[in-house]
RNA sequence: GAGCGCGUAGCUCAGCCGGUAGAGCAACUGACUUUUAAUCAGUAGGUCAUGGGUUCGAAUCCCAUCGCGCUCACCA
């Protein structure tokens, strides 16, 4: 999505951008305001944080996607004259406090509890030296599949390389100030043992949460008790890390981060991060607080609860772009993230895409697709909405794309999987969505005696038809069956021969018994596409009681 | 306790840089000449939570109140 690509900067666009109220522009303007009356630094740094104890998830995607949108808006506003960078920072020096559920051999990790994730062996085997390396690689692969433009950063490597040393020494100098900020934010129990410095034990390799006995700013050392041994350790070179709140502030100060967004759960703490950053002589980045995602019951989505939707699940049923749209829209509102929102997101995406070419620049800059595609949305013709496809799959009970395409091409000429590959993709998504969500809710009912006889007659009638019979022929054959049955005679209608017409109840019965739905497409067309032999097999199964 | 968000048609929501209320679904009516429908036309339904303010004009901006939800206060 966002990249170091060339972006469009025509004059009308630029003047519309200056006025735009779209949230990425609002955020980008905060960064410009930040440097008002001064020169921009060499590179404007956008950061997103990532905790590598789990796999990348939908929140990771949202944060990177949204940050990329702000970055792009900034590039447009500054006419791309200022270099920008998105740093995806992995806090892989964090101690492994518990063993994740997802690993294969949990007991093998037990000896490594509380060690930095980058020192924990990789439980998945393979090419990566540590657990953190593995998860970091998963993150990068994840981001790469979406085409994000970013630079990966490992906390462990930054600490060990000495990149944070100057700031760590300053933190020792200003230890009292940092403590003065931190202590009031803690409960009394934690206050007693709190330390912003977390030494890595030379003895056990663990990240220690121990009180400081002495902090020597001049020597750049800390002294603490390590399981009975009084230990003095240099705070530089990755021997000591900072506790997370000071870590945020220190990192911002050390790297000169200009923008970092985070979820509402960080909001209260952000003030603390900022103050630490200031104490260390840095300027806190611009923030943007986004709302958390909720499940269908309005509960916060969390990995541990396993509620809500995973990114893989979303992408099983819909194209990536629909998820990008979801991320663009109303980031400050808590939105429900569950399966029901997918069809709407998909259809809205294509609707926005279709509207784009005929919009003026002001409207375009308010159109999500402009932000999602770095100002260069693709031209895609989507003749059939996703909601309609779902309807159709459900009605036809389609098991594969061919059946569905049969219906589609009947109604829209010149549309084929070749001319409309996106639609073809969507057809596949619709079938999967149907299988997983609609199908389980279907309720088949058994046929009573009259219905049973009617279906048997229908079966025979179908059997008498030639193999290639068309929809019309099948429809007429089934009507002939129904006309003989008293229950389905409708005397308010007339058959071609002058007798009573066929009641709609006949077809309703067919769908209730055969497909488990109240309605369906014209039966003749359905049977023609579904196949006469297949339809007869379906009747057989229904009569054998295998459906209800 | 602190912070954030929400309260608009039966349901899900859009509209919110102010200018006579919208969509989808549901409901109802009718057309399509054997009603099974990815069709078309139409109807109905809202004191835009409440009270005040700014304004010629407020669902939209400001203040207050009520209701609902979430987050943080242990860890990251």
From TrEMBL:
Q: Where does ATP bind?
A: 303
User: Which principal EC class is assigned to this enzyme?
Assistant: ligase
EC annotation from Swiss-Prot or TrEMBL? 6.1.1.6
Q: Where in the cell is it found?
A: Cytoplasm
Keyword presence, Ligase: yes
Where the record places motif 'HIGH' region is 52-60
- GO terms, molecular function: lysine-tRNA ligase activity
InterPro entries named in the record: aa-tRNA-synth_I_codon-bd_sub2, aa-tRNA-synth_I_CS, aa_tRNA-synth_I_cd-bd_sf, Lys-tRNA-ligase, Rossmann-like_a/b/a_fold
Q: Which UniProt keywords apply?
A: Aminoacyl-tRNA synthetase, ATP-binding, Cytoplasm, Ligase, Nucleotide-binding, Protein biosynthesis
Full protein name: Lysine--tRNA ligase
Reactions catalysed, as given in the entry:
tRNA(Lys) + L-lysine + ATP = L-lysyl-tRNA(Lys) + AMP + diphosphate
């Amino acid at each position: 999505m966002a990249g170091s690509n060339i972006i469009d900067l025509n004059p009308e666009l630029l003047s519309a951008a200056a006025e735009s109220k779209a949230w990425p522009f609002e955020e980008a303007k905060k960064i410009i305001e930040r440097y008002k009356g001064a020169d921009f630094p060499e590179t404007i740094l956008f950061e997103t944080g990532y905790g590598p104890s789990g796999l990348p998830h939908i929140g990771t995607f949202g944060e990177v996607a949204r940050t990329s949108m702000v970055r792009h808006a900034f590039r447009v506003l500054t006419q791309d004259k200022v270099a920008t960078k998105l740093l995806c920072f992995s806090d892989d020096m964090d101690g492994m406090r518990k063993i994740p559920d997802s690993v294969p051999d949990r007991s093998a990790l037990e000896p490594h509890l509380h060690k930095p994730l980058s020192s924990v062996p990789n439980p998945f085997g393979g090419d990566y030296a540590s657990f953190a390396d593995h998860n970091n690689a998963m993150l990068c692969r994840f981001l790469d599949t979406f085409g994000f433009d970013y630079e990966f950063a490992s906390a462990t490597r930054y600490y060990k390389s000495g990149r944070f040393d100057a700031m760590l020494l300053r933190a020792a100098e200003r230890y009292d100030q940092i403590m003065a900020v931190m202590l009031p934010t803690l409960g009394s129990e934690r206050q007693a043992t709190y330390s912003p410095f977390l030494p890595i034990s030379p003895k056990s390799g663990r990240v220690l949460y121990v009180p400081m006995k002495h902090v020597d700013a001049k020597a750049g050392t800390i002294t603490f008790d390590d399981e009975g041994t009084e230990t003095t350790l240099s705070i530089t070179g990755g021997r000591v890390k900072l506790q997370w709140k000071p870590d945020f502030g220190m990192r911002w100060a050390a790297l000169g981060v200009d923008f970092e967004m985070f979820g509402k759960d960080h909001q209260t703490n952000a003030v603390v991060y900022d103050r630490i950053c200031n104490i260390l002589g840095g300027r806190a980045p611009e923030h943007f607080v986004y709302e958390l995602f909720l499940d269908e019951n309005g509960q916060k989505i969390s990995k541990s609860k396993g509620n809500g939707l995973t990114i893989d699940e979303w992408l099983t049923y819909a194209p990536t772009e629909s998820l990008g749209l979801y991320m663009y829209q109303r980031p400050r509102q808590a939105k429900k993230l569950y399966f029901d929102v997918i069809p709407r997101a998909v259809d809205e995406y294509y609707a926005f895409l279709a509207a784009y070419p005929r919009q003026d620049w002001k409207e375009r800059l308010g159109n999500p697709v402009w932000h999602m595609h770095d100002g260069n949305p693709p031209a895609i013709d989507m003749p059939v909405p996703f909601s309609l496809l779902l309807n159709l799959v459900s009605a036809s009970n389609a098991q594969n794309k061919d059946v569905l395409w049969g219906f589609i091409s009947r109604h829209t000429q010149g549309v084929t999987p070749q001319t409309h590959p996106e639609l073809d993709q969507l057809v596949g998504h619709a079938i999967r969505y149907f299988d997983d969500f609609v199908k389980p809710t279907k309720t088949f009912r058994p046929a009573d005696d009259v219905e049973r006889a009617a279906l048997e007659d229908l079966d025979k009638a179908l059997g008498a038809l030639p193999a290639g019979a068309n929809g019309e022929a099948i429809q007429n054959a089934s009507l002939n069956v129904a006309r003989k049955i008293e229950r389905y005679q409708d005397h308010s209608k007339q058959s071609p021969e002058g007798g009573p017409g066929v009641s709609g109840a006949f077809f309703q019965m067919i769908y209730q018994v055969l497909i488990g739905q109240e309605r369906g497409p014209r039966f003749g067309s359905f049977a023609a596409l579904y196949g006469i032999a297949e339809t007869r097999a379906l009747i057989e199964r229904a009569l054998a009681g295998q459906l209800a």
